[in-house]
Amino acid sequence: MALVPYEETAGVGLQKFHKPLATFSFANHTIQIRRDWSQLGVAAVVWDAAGLLCTYLEMGAGRELRGCSAVELGAGTGLVGIVAALLGAPVTITDRKVALEFFKSNVQANLPPHIQPNAVVKELTWGQNLGSYSPGEFDLILGADIIYLEETFADLLQTLEHLCSKRSVILLACRIRYEWDNNFLAMLERQFTVSKVHYDSEKDVHIYKVGFNL
After folding, report:
1. CB-side exposure of 86: number of CA atoms within 13 Å?
2. Under a CB-based contact definition with an 8 Å cutoff, are residues 3 and 40 in contact?
3. The whole model's pTM is what?
4. Which domains are assigned to the chain?
5. How far apart are the C-alpha atoms of 178 and 191, rounded to whole Å?
6. Mind listing the pLDDT tens digit for each residue in 49-97?
């Protein structure tokens, strides 16, 4: 959702993100994700939260994904949506317009032809073009490292409220970097039931399960 490139001088630790390809193994498939740091900055990086969320989905995520309508918010490279589709979910993979063609190429390159019709790439700017999505349209709402810009929180919460029904489950994987990240969790708790279902201490990534009736 939020495209905020780091400065080139941000440090050697970020140099690994500049490599043009990253390879993963999920759902019995080898997935090669194209990255373009110079074009999209942090949106073109597969962060640890995305990989951990994919692992959680692969392990079952507390529900059957086959036939479960899913949407990924702030898709960036599209990895989470790709894995959800490989696991059998009809999935809508979304981000701002500027990122669509970039991650659409990853979707097309990594999904077998018979699965590609189940993966729709679609624009979604939080808090804006919500009319093109039916209220409560999805069973599963996915977001990996989308909680980090305080100015987007109100729009993100509005979007989650629009997409979520009484039956929906939201899975958010994130690293808590700043105090305002906790503020967003507090905002969520005013509207939803929030529970932490996994924490990876090595990567310092949390997965939260969010919904009206957990």
Report:
1. 23
2. yes
3. 0.89
4. 46-211 (3.40.50.150)
5. 21
6. 999 999 999 998 767 899 999 999 999 899 999 999 999 999 999 999 9
